[in-house]
């Protein structure tokens, strides 16, 4: 079972920052998940619509200029990074799951992924694009078939795995609260991987591996990786 650091190693470091990402790589995470949104024509790595929870700013991310965003601090001394800065930091050392928070960010994000493959040492297979906007994923896959796509859901739509298969996804990403064995079986029969978010408890990590889940998103990648290590005889 693969371990993805959710917003980087965000349990111990400010979420969606370069320090959280570098830490996840040091922990040997298989991959890192980040959230992206467009602001002032820049692809910013940021989860919320509003600035106040994770920065010293106020207002909506999309209403701020790039210069204003650069002056903000997140987690004390970190800046909100751009997607290009994150790609340049990782440089193909692990997989990257880019979660598109809205439609407008999709084109600039996929262009950045193209740059990452051309210039920054990523293989296309290392890049996973996910979104709650399933129609968007279907459109992107038409133009950028070389990347992996994952249908993200917070509930359990009747046709989740069927839909994901139909639009050419390689995985579904589902809330741990909504997972069941039938869903895992259905996805696997269709050739889809099942990744589960957000899994921070060791008991859950071990149980999900036993259930046949392919990957988890966790805020504490070191804890999950340690829990999955085979016990020495
Ligand atoms: O991509 C999995 C997970 O990150 C989706 O929810 O709100 O944490 O972005 P959220
Ligand atoms: Mg996310």
Tag the structure with descriptive keywords:
single chain; 233 residues; alpha/beta; TIM Barrel; 8-stranded parallel beta barrel; 9 helices; 9 strands; globular; binds SN-glycerol-3-phosphate; binds magnesium ion
Structure, briefly:
The protein has 233 residues and is α/β, with parallel strands linked by helices. Helices cover 35% and strands 21% of the residues.
Strand content: 15-25%
Gap from first CA to last CA:
21 Å
The CATH architecture designation of the domain at 13-175 is Alpha-Beta Barrel
What is the number of beta strands?
9
Task: Return the CATH class of the domain at 13-175.
Answer: Alpha Beta
**Count the helices. How many?**
9
How do the strands of the widest beta sheet line up side by side? 1-2-4-5-6-7-8-9
Order of helices and strands: EHEEHHEHEHEHEHEHEH
Question: How would you characterize the overall build of this protein?
Answer:
- The protein has 233 residues and is α/β, with parallel strands linked by helices.
- The protein has a domain at 13-175: Phosphatidylinositol (PI) phosphodiesterase (TIM Barrel, Alpha-Beta Barrel).
- It contains 9 helices and 9 strands.
- An 8-stranded parallel beta barrel has the order 1-2-4-5-6-7-8-9, surrounded by 8 helices.
- Helix 7 links the parallel strand 7 (171-175) and strand 8.
- The radius of gyration is 17 Å and the shape is globular.
- The structure holds SN-glycerol-3-phosphate and magnesium ion (MG).
- Magnesium ion (MG) binds next to strand 2.
């Amino acid at each position: 079972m693969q371990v993805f650091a959710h917003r980087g190693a965000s349990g111990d470091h400010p979420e969606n920052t370069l320090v959280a990402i570098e830490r996840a790589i040091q922990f040997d995470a298989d991959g890192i998940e980040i959230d992206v949104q467009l602001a002032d024509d820049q692809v910013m790595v940021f989860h919320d619509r509003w600035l106040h929870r994770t920065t010293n700013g106020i207002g909506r991310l999309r209403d701020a200029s790039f210069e204003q965003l650069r002056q903000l601090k997140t987690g004390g001394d970190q800046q909100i990074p751009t997607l290009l800065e994150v790609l340049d930091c990782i440089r193909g050392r692990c997989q990257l799951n880019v979660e598109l928070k809205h439609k407008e960010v999709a084109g600039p994000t996929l262009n950045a992924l193209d740059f990452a493959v051309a210039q920054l040492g990523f293989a296309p297979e290392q890049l996973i694009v996910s979104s709650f906007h399933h129609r968007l994923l279907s459109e992107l896959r038409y133009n950028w078939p070389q990347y992996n796509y994952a249908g993200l859901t917070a509930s359990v739509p009747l046709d989740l795995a069927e839909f994901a298969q139909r639009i050419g996804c390689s995985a579904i990403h589902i809330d741990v609260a909504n997972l069941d064995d039938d869903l895992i079986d259905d996805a696997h029969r269709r050739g889809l991987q099942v990744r589960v978010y957000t899994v921070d408890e060791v008991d859950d990590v071990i149980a999900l591996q036993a259930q046949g889940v392919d990957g988890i998103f966790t805020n504490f990648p070191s804890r999950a990786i340690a829990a999955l290590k085979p016990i020495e005889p």
